[in-house]
Amino acid sequence: MVAFGKFVLHVLRNRKPFNLHRLSFHCGDPSKPPPYIKKIFQYAVSHSVEELKTDLDNFPQCFNGCQTLVTLNLYNLDYDIHSICSFGFGSLSTLKISQLILSNKITIMISSQII
């Protein structure tokens, strides 16, 4: 896993500085995200990511409130405890959720401001 993380960071450092349209990130076990996840999401924010597809149910702090995110596709989520999900993505227009397992009571709050 360490070698793969180094490879990912190498690719991100050497990528041309264009905006990032779409990011797909499959963690496999969201309870144990890889150590390089923060760097990937910092890169996504700094390069104006517009679409994200992921199985993460808890984003790194640096990604919360990403203002360029338009489409968020969440899949394979398993909530075992009482959870509150709050999305503060100002430009979000599409939210897709698939393969969601609710084991206990869950509260999902989605808010959007139209200016």
* Distance between the amino and carboxyl termini: 44 Å
Number of domains: 1
Give me the number of helical elements: 2
> C-alpha Rg, in Å?
15 Å
Mean pLDDT across residues: 76
- Major β-sheet profile: 4 strands, parallel
Number of strands: 6
> What series of H and E elements makes up the topology?
HEHEEEEE
Which outline best applies?
A: globular
Strand content is 25-35%
Uncertain residue ranges? 80-84
- The helix content, as a percent range, equals 10-25%
Strand order of the largest sheet: 1-2-3-5
SS-derived structural category: alpha/beta
What's the short version?
By secondary structure, the protein is an alpha/beta fold. Helix content is 20%, strand content 31%.
Q: Which descriptors would you attach to this protein?
A:
20% helix, 4-stranded parallel β-sheet, 2 helices, two-stranded parallel ribbon, alpha/beta
